[in-house]
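As a warm-up, study this chain.
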Amino acid sequence: MRNQVRKAFTLIEILIVVVILGILAAIVIPQFTKASEDAQAGNVQTQLQTIRNTVELYRVRNNGAYPFSNTALAWTPLVTPDFLRSAPVNPRTNSDVIVSGTDHTSGATTNGWVWNNTSKTLFASYWDETAKNWTGP
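Now compare it with the structure written out below.
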């Protein structure tokens, strides 16, 4: 009688492969979730630099007047062919709403931007520029 040769994986071999795949997934998946937050952080930093430069350009072209005040918080003065093509959207809150406040934590977490009329500075809502992280939603 001839010995039959089986061409199949044993249960132990399959379990070892599954465990190795699980370990690899546990290492790789957290890096992808962090990549999304890093992309949002880079996006908001770039937008803030662009918006602040645009506000300064507006001020220079308009004899020292700023496009925002406590009573007129809208992107209308800047959304022109000379300044911005459209109102910028905060990537974390998905909002372009501007509110008046003193720092990035002013207003609701659903607002996009905060204008400090005293320092004439624009902040992204709940984005801590010093720590470079989100403090809100």
